[in-house]
Amino acid sequence: MQHPLQLTDHIIITMDGVPTPLRCFNEYHSAEMLVDDGVETVTSVEQKKVERSIKEVVSVYKQMHSLPQPTLLREQHYQYLKKGLRHLSDAYECLDASRPWLCFWILHSLELLEEPIPAAVASDVCQFLSRCQSPTGGFSGGPGQHAHLAPTYAAVNALCIIGTEESYNIIDRKKLLDFLLSVKQPNGSFVMHVGGEVDVRSAYCAASVATLTNILTPKLFEDTATWILSCQNWEGGLSGVPGLEAHGGYTFCGTAALVILGKEHMLDLKALLRWVVSRQMRFEGGFRAAATSWWTAATLSGRLDSCRCCTEPCSKKESRS
Fold this sequence. Notes:
The structure is a single chain. With about 325 residues, the chain is mainly α. The protein folds into 2 domains: about 70-85 and about 95-170, no CATH class; about 180-315, Glycosyltransferase (Alpha/alpha barrel). About 50% of the residues lie in helices and about 0% in strands. Helix 5 (about 150-160) packs parallel to helix 8 (about 200-210) and helix 8 runs parallel beside helix 10. The radius of gyration is 22 Å and the shape is globular. The two termini are about 40 Å apart.
């Protein structure tokens, strides 16, 4: 299936719409490797090991690809995703408690690729997610499991991506609100499930689904912004709970939750941006920690306009609205 926008070119689009080559094709790329100035530490030794392994991978990639820009294999992605909505191999058994996430990841990828979701497949997804909905509200990781904020986030977002009357009717909004209230804590935080752990992910999941389903109330999020703000530490980023080390994933979740609640201006935005950009590695190009590059980059992308709005006169803000 050929996409009408012909987005199969060797291209990365920057924020200003200009294509850019991969960094690894820059002749000065190797100069970005760590220089420890003769002071060797455990950290510097490990960093050099990482950079050497990456350099080997980059070298092989450059031998295989003559063009410096990557190719998005749209058709292969589409076929892979379409197949995943109907069948997954035994290797996915470990994600039995994350099945709404699989639906969301696949549907969101199709949405980003602007590929259609067949009506019959969409209906089947709706029916499956309806079986994941708990009798007491919220969604579980699979049929018969306990309601949990993470799969609730995934299920609600997946149903909203489908965007049909059938998908919207799946969500029991009254019981969903009851579930959110049941995991709300007196200090404004949320537990991931009844009797579960507290961290800033839960506040984001709750704010997202409450907004999407139009059940966001002052009572539901009373003191939540204050609690999230207490997770911003001296580094500038946000931790999972107050007093811990800042983390890319938690920084995204906390920042996004405050944006949803209209309270992002209460953050120390200058410190936040300083922390986020400081997470990028010179040689690798990505952000620190294997699983947090997306979260950290997404925070940076989502915060730029808000930071500009917070420093501009009202007249300039109004001119853009």
